[in-house]
Amino acid sequence: MLERLQKVLAAAGLGSRRKCEEWIAAGRVAVNGKTVTRLGVKVDPERDRISVDGRPVRVPPKNKKVYLMLHKPKGYLSSVSDPFGRKTVVDLVRDVGARVYPVGRLDADTEGLLLLTDDGDFAHLLTHPRYGVPKTYLATVRGVPHGSLLERLRRGIRLEDGVTAPAQVEYEDVDLERDEAVIRVTIREGRKRQVRRMFEAIGHPVERLVRVGIGPLRLGSLPVGRYRPLTEKEVDLLRAAARRTHKLHNSGDGS
């Protein structure tokens, strides 16, 4: 069965579909010994010989995909490896028996819910901007922001890379003695350090940031540094959430 080359590479657990497209365009991928640089090329993963940087690519059976939820600790990089030898989230799942990679990223200083998988299509659904799957965070900020400042975040606030999309923002807790507040924030974008920059823009820097939700999935009581497999129902719910959001976006209904 013929499939797009970038889809096959993603299915092999090498990275997201977008990352695999970048590799193809850069001339790092070969099919049957010939370098491919054009997107849209279709291959038969059971017959064609595919390699990346000269290394053969093995596509696992479709029914053997792995989906993990990790409670990422502070100080770990959301990557497969690091040239400087720093700790990565993959170090926490070495015993899973599969080559998984993070779905999207959390900053090294950010904690909480991170998904890892070897399913490129699944990762694509949850990370591509056109799907806009909501991510929910608890941000502990310095000081107690006035309600009018939170309203600016709800409407969208200008950052150096443009105005943010409207966010859902509400108080979770306020500690007047410590002069800090915990704010629950849900966004549908994935800009670099976006939540931290949003609060810096209103004068209340983030002191701690924990992602507690992706779409319908919640971190719950999973201990820091531990992981668990997603249930089949959870995987289906995440896929459905991505497709539903994409459909609403295309219909022009932003509610």
Structure description:
This protein has 255 residues and is α+β, with helices and mostly antiparallel strands. It folds into three domains: 3-59, Structural Genomics Hypothetical 15.5 Kd Protein In mrcA-pckA Intergenic Region, Chain A; 63-129 and 219-251, Alpha-Beta Plaits; 135-214, 2-Layer Sandwich (Alpha-Beta Plaits), CATH 3.30.70.1560. Helix content is 24%, strand content 28%. Strands 7, 8, 9, 10, 13, 14, 15, 16 and 17 form a nine-stranded mixed β-sheet that branches. The chain has a four-stranded antiparallel β-sheet with strand order 3-2-5-6. A two-stranded antiparallel ribbon has the order 1-4. A hairpin with a 2-residue loop joins strand 15 (206-214) and strand 16. The longest helix is centred in the last third of the chain and has 20 residues, at 232-251. 35% of the residues are buried. The mean pLDDT is 90.
Considering the chains and any ligands shown, give keywords for the structure.
Alpha-Beta Plaits; 4-stranded antiparallel beta sheet; single chain; Structural Genomics Hypothetical 15.5 Kd Protein In mrcA-pckA Intergenic Region, Chain A; elongated; 3 domains; 255 residues; 9-stranded mixed beta sheet; alpha+beta
